[in-house]
From TrEMBL:
Residues 143-350 form the Glutamate/phenylalanine/leucine/valine/L-tryptophan dehydrogenase C-terminal domain. The keyword Nucleotide-binding applies. It comes from Solilutibacter tolerans. SUPFAM superfamilies: Aminoacid dehydrogenase-like, N-terminal domain, NAD(P)-binding Rossmann-fold domains. Keywords: NAD, Nucleotide-binding, Oxidoreductase. It comes from the Bacteria. One of its GO terms (biological process) is amino acid metabolic process. One of its GO terms (molecular function) is oxidoreductase activity, acting on the CH-NH2 group of donors, NAD or NADP as acceptor. Belongs to the Glu/Leu/Phe/Val dehydrogenases family. The active site is at 79 (proton donor/acceptor). The keyword rRNA processing does not apply. Pfam families: ELFV_dehydrog (PF00208), ELFV_dehydrog_N (PF02812). This is Leucine dehydrogenase. NAD(+) binds at residues 179-184.
Amino acid sequence: MVFETLDHTGHEQIVFCHNKDAGLKAIIAIHSTVLGPALGGTRMWNYATEEEALNDVLRLSRGMTYKNAVAGLNLGGGKAVIIGDASQDKSEALFRAFGQFVESLNGRYITAEDVGIDVNDMEYVYRETEYVTGVHQVHGGSGDPSPFTAYGTLQGLMATLNKKHGDEEVGKYSYAVQGLGHVGMEFVKLLKERGAKIFVTDINQKLVDRAVNEFGAEAVGLDEIYDVPADVYSPCALGGTVNENTLDRLKAKIICGAANNQLANNAIGDEVTKRGILYAPDYAVNAGGVMNVALELDGYNRERAMRMMRTIYHNLGRIYEIAERDGIPTYQAADRMAEERIEKIGKLKLSMGRGTPRFQGRIRGN
Ligand code: NAD
């Protein structure tokens, strides 16, 4: 049953990690190491069943292979899940035991933070293994990736405006930004700096007030965000918001935001295309975060990070070329771009020998 699933999903390796004393139950899934070590975060979640945890880690690790490939990184895709309640079950022993499992893979898998895990948890993992990114800045790590993700989203937006309208004048257009968290607020700031008209919403009223007062945004209700007369719909909160109920209401001709898994399903992606809406594939647009942590591998530096974010502009351009070349929706073109790169660069790397991560400029120890 497990191998049947792996045949289907194409995973290389699944590691079940168990340490009774530390209360650790975790799964590490390595989907692909063709382009390099499998990089992807660790999620801590109170899964109802072990099967749910396995399905989640298989789905997420495969997604990382595609994301890292499109981002142009020399990294494969992997992900880990720790089964447990992030508000109650965390301990030093749990994360150090997990770190020992990561270490046992000798660099085939490199972890980072994901839902339920913060930089303090990673400090414990880091005591047991070097194969961690997103460590604290005091260790030469990269810190909060959100501003980079927002800046990368802006690059993706410019490429998308260019494709749709033949110009990149961000300030000429209006935006409906859903979610004003770490990425959303920073994105609003960047839009405002370019003189754009911005509609915003969030479940947190304080954040809405800030966007209105500091960035001159117009506040709308949580559900109203789908109806506003904006040129661009920018989901920066939850996944699945482009769905059967919302699509008819959207006035925007561009969808471009930082949220993961924006399309409820592939059929919606096809429908978006039919309606002449240009969808900027989420995992290509929001790759700023992973690019930022990936830079830790050979010496983190903010200037290099900002430079790398700008490649998102070119990645989106390439996706739109592939969509046109093959007559397919953009969400499929992103996958195709990833598969083509894995195929071509994978062969090249095999013939030249694989690089190993160097982790330059980082400081181990406490
Ligand atoms: P965050 O938790 O800081 O912000 C999310 C915001 O969305 C919060 O302010 C929350 O109140 C709001 N929200 C939740 N439900 C909402 C709803 N129904 N309507 C309106 N607002 C709602 O998260 P973040 O780090 O800003 O990430 C935002 C999205 O971008 C997520 O989907 C995340 O997976 C994705 N992403 C983030 C990064 C990063 O670097 N932080 C990188 C890649 C992808």
